[in-house]
């Protein structure tokens, strides 16, 4: 038995075994509290370390992902620029080729139009119904007529040959206009020169044919030429 004095007036008797149990219980509670505290600290530490570990690897993965996206974007950019440069090169080649074609078309139109005007002018001169001449010299008159026929023949052949050698430079609309005009000029020349080919003397019949030919050259052909000129201007980009 142990006597414990709380104050000078009171003394309590406490059995030793109870005191021992009390001390053990208190010690166990303190130990449990300590273990619980340090356990909580350790768990918190593990949680903190684990979070940091996860955050570390998360940041690493995020950085790797960012780097991968960056490099992929750079590769895509370089690939795009490479393809774009290829397209630019092809476009430059096509533009150069189209420029050469347009230049060629311009030259062909200019040359063909020049030959057409010369040919048409010779036909106008050839098919005149009134001409101031000296009727006393018939041989000279015939020679002049043959020279006009030869001149129209040469100019017409030159014009026709040039057109057929270069017709691929004209679109369908322009070809139709040219060939309709060519047909009228060819028929007019053929009808005008038939009496020379067959050695037919002048008569009312031949004079009537020559008059009709002259009307075609002076009335119908100019309309066809004007339509062709409009088509040429469109092809040259000059149409208003």
What report would you give on this structure?
The protein has five helices and two strands; from the N terminus they run ββααααα. With 240 residues, the chain is mainly alpha-helical. The chain is rod-shaped. The relative contact order is 0.06. Strand 1 and strand 2 form a beta hairpin. Helices cover 82% and strands 5% of the residues.
Specify Rg, calculated over alpha carbons.
57 Å
Strand order of the largest sheet: 1-2
Structural class: mainly alpha
Note the total helix count.
5
As a percent range, the share of strand residues is under 5%
Outline the biggest β-sheet: 2 strands, antiparallel
Question: Helix fraction?
Answer: over 70%
Shape, please?
Answer: rod-shaped
Beta-strand segment tally: 2
Low-confidence stretches: 1-14
User: What's the rounded overall pLDDT mean?
Assistant: 79
Order of helices and strands: EEHHHHH
Tell me the span between the first and last alpha carbons. Answer: 133 Å
Question: What characteristics describe this protein?
Answer:
240 residues, mainly alpha, two-stranded antiparallel ribbon, 5 helices, disordered N terminus
